[in-house]
Write a structure and sequence with these properties.
Blueprint (H helix, E strand, L loop, with lengths): L2 H18 L2 H9 L10 E6 L3 H12 L5 E7 L9 E6 L6 H16 L5 E6 L3 H4 L9 H14 L3 H9 L8 H6 L3 E7 L22 H10 L8 H12 L16 E7 L1 H14 L3 E4 L8 H18 L7 E7 L21 H12 L6 E7 L11 E5 L2 H4 L3 H6 L3 H8 L2 E2 L10 E7 L4
Parallel strand pairs: 1-2, 1-4, 2-3, 4-5, 5-6, 7-8
Antiparallel strand pairs: 8-12, 9-10, 9-12, 10-11
């Protein structure tokens, strides 16, 4: 297994993970089990990067039974639907188009009656794509807070705990609007652990977090006083009981609600392992729940691969070590001149670069890391691929890493992974291949 072959196989294994995360197949399988004849009207609502493929699947199954529908999707992630409108809007920062769409989604949910069905389609990115700020918070202030949380390195659970308490639609509020209609929510999980109250900030799920949790996140990262005043006012009102909490388990709003996870990172990793086995590797899935600082997680992965190469533990070559989850990148002060205070990249590109540094010189080894949605950070790449000779092709890897400029590093050697929009999102897949010893 030469390095070129390992690289080719890494992409094939990733493609198998993507196929397993195809939301259209999952939606169709689920809808085929529902008796729709008992509903007077069917409203299809939702948001997410996979919204287009999920909506198309609904139309294929339901056809003219769809009374009305609106799904917020990321720019350039649309499709030619007939009865369900797809509204393109901003991600990862929410914009006016997203807010206008969220207003209309809330209005459609509110008009549903007891004999109606609200079919809610939620996938990765839904939190940013469903911005409906609660007074006195404005959209600009919510955007500013999002930037602060991202730069601080807050994980998805922490970000959603804050966003749910600044929203009129998240944290179970959409279910409250739709009651007493029947609500079926189909969730494509982009969060570690697949908790339904975290996926898309849980618009139809009971919310376990509180205003106190939201305040604690902002204070933990030292951004409470830097947060917009309206954000602090809203949270402080909630802490005093002047603003009602999000609906909790047992609330009447959830009596006719069912939330179903139809796709996840775990399923994608299992499919990747199966493809690796077909290609002649011994697969090992580390975990689908890996979180933490990206470069530290990368060093841990590189250490495991080196151990496997030297001792055959925890898996003998030819080996495929697979992991998933969602790491974070905490921006630090730049150490060299580059593309500004910080360079360009995403957590998958940063993972690949950090791993490449620790794997320098290791023969017959490849590391591949990419987001299943086809985007990694604010870039046009899904991730990157590296091997034991990567650092030799551009020895300044550590400088690029210190400046969080992994995109330009991999661009310089032609090793960015670009898939285009995949119309799915089950967070990240990391693949490390080790060929048999010569």
């Amino acid at each position: 297994m030469s390095v070129p072959t390992l690289r080719k196989h890494a992409r094939a294994i990733f493609d198998a993970a993507l196929a397993a995360a195809d939301p259209s197949r999952a939606v169709e399988r689920h809808l085929e089990r529902i008796d729709f004849s008992r509903f007077q009207n069917i409203y299809v609502l939702g948001a997410g990067k996979a919204g287009a493929s999920m909506a198309l699947a609904c139309e294929r199954v339901l056809g003219s039974r769809v009374t009305a529908g609106l799904v917020n999707v990321k720019y350039d992630h649309s499709a030619a639907t007939r009865r369900i409108e797809l509204n393109e809007c901003g991600h990862p920062e929410p914009d006016e188009c997203g807010m206008n769409g969220a207003e209309r989604i809330a209005a459609l949910a509110a008009q549903a009656q007891r004999n109606d069905l609200v079919l809610c389609l939620i996938s990765g990115g839904a939190s940013a794509l469903l911005p409906l700020p609660a007074p006195p918070v404005t959209l600009d202030e919510k955007r500013e807070l999002t930037r602060l949380l991202l730069a601080a390195g807050a994980d998805i659970h922490e970000m959603n705990a804050v966003r749910k308490h600044l929203s009129r639609i998240k944290g179970g509020e959409l279910a409250r609007l739709a009651a007493p209609a029947r609500v079926e929510s189909l969730l494509l999980s982009d969060v570690v652990g697949d908790n339904v109250d975290v996926i898309g900030s849980g618009p139809t799920a009971p919310d376990a977090s509180t205003f106190a949790d939201a305040a604690a996140v902002l204070k933990r990262y030292g951004i409470w006083r830097r947060s917009p005043k309206a954000v602090r006012v809203r949270i402080e009102c909630g802490l005093r009981g002047a603003v009602p909490e999000t609906p909790k388990p047992g609330d009447a709003a959830f009596r006719r609600v069912r939330n179903t996870v139809i796709g996840s990172n775990r399923l994608a990793l299992t499919a990747a392992a199966g493809r690796a086995r077909e290609l002649g590797y011994r697969p090992l899935i580390l975990s689908s729940e890996i979180v933490g600082e990206t470069r530290e997680i990368a060093r841990m992965h590189a250490a495991i691969l080196r151990e496997a190469a030297h001792t055959g533990h925890p898996v003998k070559p030819p080996a495929c070590i697979i992991s998933g989850g969602e790491t974070t990148v905490t921006l630090k002060t730049a150490t060299h001149k580059g593309a500004g205070p910080h360079g360009l990249g995403g957590r998958n590109q940063e993972f690949a670069l950090a791993a490449a540094i620790d794997l320098a010189g290791l023969p017959n080894a490849v590391v591949f890391s990419a987001g299943t949605d086809g985007t990694d950070g604010p870039t046009d790449a899904a991730g990157a691929i590296a091997d034991g000779s990567t650092l030799a092709r551009n020895p300044e890897g550590r400088l690029y890493l210190d400046n969080h400029d992994s995109y330009h590093y991999f661009e310089s050697i032609g090793d960015l992974v670009k898939t285009g929009p995949t119309h799915t999102n089950v967070i990240d897949v990391r693949i490390m291949l080790l060929g048999a010893a010569p």
